[in-house]
Fold these 2 entries.
Entry 1:
Amino acid sequence: MAQLSVRRGREAVEFYQKAFGAVEDYRVGGTDDNEAVVSQLSIGEATFWVADESPEHSNFSPETVGGSTVRLLLVVDDPDAAIAKAVAAGAREVYPAANEHRWRLGRIEDPFGHHWEIGKPLIAWPPAH
């Protein structure tokens, strides 16, 4: 399970809900009294955490380090529509969905610096050996 470090955690949770239809399963903080948020989100069967960066615990956001060191892969039925929805919610399209390597795949950068490849396999996955 991944944890994404971000700045503006409450805003990030709202973005993932709007862009990807994420459901918030659990939250600590993210209030006016305790602004820092740690939230467990799920998109379909995939679960991940979003937390405000905490340099004192060596958790830095892509905005702080000047880029992301990972790409996340979100498998969906309609990559083109999912990319369009994410862009409408505030993401930047890195490249549009295209067919390559037996996948329909595109990439966005979310407003917090994380890169998401959004696609679906064009053949049965995983391929038979």
Entry 2:
Amino acid sequence: MEAHAAHHGPPVANQSSRVDSTTLGMLLFIASEIMLFGSFFTAYFFVRVVNAAPEWPPYPFHLPVFVAGVNTVILLTSSFTMHWSLQAIKRGNRAGMQAGLVLTIALGLTFLLTQAREYSRIGFAPHDGAFGSAFFGLTGLHGAHVFVGLTLLTFATVRAFRGHFTPEDHRGVEIPGIYWHFVDVMWIVVYTTVYIL
């Protein structure tokens, strides 16, 4: 009865009883990023509808669907290694957390390098018409987000090797992980929209 009586009134104004403030901040940031991606998808679909080409992408553009598919597998695998890293530290497995973070960074770098290689051999540039602009704008926006995610993961990895995380305090792994999963989901949408449909 005393414990129940000790809590009166609403929670503190800048706190939620369900989600801690750092997680909530990342979720709100991701919501704004979804709106940014939405504007780029709108531009891409506008180009596609206005173009009304019988085939897509329009001639003479050709997209390396196989390479992008391999890159998709690489990025999806990185989501699993990120999840493994977080679950490892929750169980007190510091080595598993460190290995998961290092593997996630390695896979993310592989994705970016493969995308850079794709750009260098794709045969068109951002200034080659509306399709070129939309393609490079959308995939480049995602690539920039991968770079930001890798930066966050690098900080988390440095902290992990310095012994900063425990099963009780692992927010420094969890928050970059949420962002990384967002980046992976956005790539699935970009890949499906640009390379498959």
